[in-house]
Amino acid sequence: MNILLTGATGYIGQRLLPLLVEAGHHVTCLVRDARRFELPAGLRNRIVVAEGDLLKPDSLTDLPLDVDVAYYLVHSMSGHDKDFFRLEQESAQHFAHYLNRTRCRQVIYLSGIANDRALSVHLRSRKAVEKVLRKTSKAQLTVLRASIIIGSGSASFEIIRDLVEKLPVMVTPRWLNSRCQPIGIRDVMHYLTTVLNNPACLGQSFDIGGPDVLTYREMLLELAAARGLKRYIVTVPVLTPRLSSWWLYLVTSTTFSLAQSLVESLRNDTVADPRRSIGEAVPHICMPYRAAVELAFQRIEQNEVVSSWSDALSSGVMPRNYMDHIQIPQHGLLTDRQTLRFTRPPREVLQNVWSIGGERGWYKVDWLWRIRGLLDKLVGGVGLRRGRRSPTDLRAGDPLDFWRVLVADRAGRRLLLYAEMKLPGEAWLQFRILPHDDGSHTLEQLAAFRPHGLLGRLYWYSLVPFHFIIFKGMIENIVQYGETVPLPASASSPLPTKQAVAPK
Q: Which residues contact 275 (CB under 8 A, 6 or more apart)?
């Protein structure tokens, strides 16, 4: 079938896309900016990428009309402005009006379980979007409502993991006693693919969940047990939603807007209603919570994290048109340019560049980077805790600590990062490996900053002494990391050599 996939750059969409292609469907991915949608090599010739913004109906006029089924995976847990509720409904209306010009016969929407009273704004928004799609679209709607999704890279899993691994004793708000019905990402994928063109699912809404109904407190303790950790939780009534949001924001890798949204939603019980069970239409046994947690850690340990919540632009402060910054401006910049010639194989140095940040760190005085990340957190930025999707692989659009990857060109030996941290200006960090005729190469490291007014210039010049320490040592350590240490000329006997030179 011809399938239109929205939200293809998000956590769910990135995992669903290869499953649809492997099943033999013709998939068109609707994205705002095709430049930030980097596909795995095996999929590039098997899908179509179409540009369109659901908030701008004029941008949808040239989209394909030969659509059989559409997946609507568009929503933002990080949206927290006053117009969020209205904008989500407008997006759904524009999408439905476009589909009415096509031959589409089914729309599949992933929503949230919303059976509680006094719903959070995000759960109310999910229900409102369901109503818009059902009322406006001529295609039959299939809704899957899920609670907490557990999988490597999911926002819920990463927050629970952060809390458990960092805090032996937790003082928590009352919402930790709310109940939910977690479901593994593998089971979500199963339902998303099996309701496709399933007659029993047309026009139906289902609550999907795993076999366990747990409080958030029980989820934390169960994950701690899976990791062999002893944790203590004290629940207090005095933490307001805003204080709870700040608590989550400062302790975990989440953004403040996402923390706000989660805290509001976690006050609701999200337990599946047996009357909306999907069991008859799609018989399937879901994984228990503990099994989903253990599978997520296996994927992390095997470096097989397909997608992460932080892939989405809403995980940072980037403008939606951030790929317009893919070329560093030629004028009005303050720069620090370092170069270092080397003779070791360029692929080894390139891999060191590709492994920067995250667990590897920034190759020089990591404690200064951590302080900068903490300061960024305190002023509402993303901080360093987002880490990276993979310890060794990068692709355009990836988050990388408090940077966003604009260009990850292995063939051209170029990596370009754009700052998502709070700054009085715009910042880029670029690495290039340049060849020489004698077989040697040069690593070029360019830090560029376009200041906004006098404050921006004062910011840059105040950091110049730190730049001298950081950037010079940084390029040296990138070139040397992992290189076999040569023996001194005076050595009289061979000695074991180091295979990994740690950053100085």
A: none
